[in-house]
Amino acid sequence: MPGKIGLFYASTTGNTESVAQQIENLAAEQVQLHDIAAQGVAAMQEYDALIIGIPTWDFGELQEDWDEYWQVFCGIDFSGKKVALFGLGDQLGYGEWFLDAMGAVNDQVLAAGGEVLVPWPVEGYDFEASKALTADGSHFVGLALDEDCQRSETEARLQQWVPQVLAALLD
């Protein structure tokens, strides 16, 4: 859909859904929300610009709806698509795998020809390891959120990140 950004997410506890809705509100009519559990991922092909949200579960695993649609996701051609990512994780309880699922999505988008934009600085986080880091380790590949340990930071981070995403994806 030219002119619109497809925002695809899946949520088990409601945290990722809440963040997706906050992004939709901040993006003011620019975003079309898609819950993967209800709609799958095939409609990603219809957009030139995407925001993709994924929580990391347990020891660096994909959330169950993402896991269910992973093979379909891996079949999508992201050539010419601009993508921004956001991930949710628990940096204290699962610090060895913080946002690993966002790293998996990033790797697949890049492997399928997409361009991942708007990395997020690692300052302000306390984790042991993450597969969602840029090559130099100074940034996450997308917005990092922790609703378990840093819920109070989410709104400010979104207010900073969403305008950057809109500028990058609609440019």
From TrEMBL:
Checking InterPro entries in the record gives: Flavodoxin, Flavodoxin/NO_synth, Flavodoxin_CS, Flavodoxin_lc, Flavoprotein-like_sf
**Cofactor(s) of this protein:** FMN
MF (Gene Ontology): electron transfer activity; FMN binding
Q: Which UniProt keywords apply?
A: Electron transport, Flavoprotein, FMN, Transport
Is Electron transport among the key words of this record? yes
Tell me the Gene3D superfamilies matching this sequence: 3.40.50.360
Q: Where is the Flavodoxin-like domain?
A: 5-166
List residues traversing the bilayer.
none
The answer to whether the entry has keyword Plastid is: no
Domain of life assignment: Bacteria
Q: Which PANTHER family match?
A: FLAVODOXIN 2 (PTHR42809:SF3)
Please give the function described in this protein's UniProt entry: Low-potential electron donor to a number of redox enzymes.
Protein family: Belongs to the flavodoxin family.
User: Protein name, please?
Assistant: Flavodoxin
Q: Which organism is it from?
A: Marinobacterium stanieri
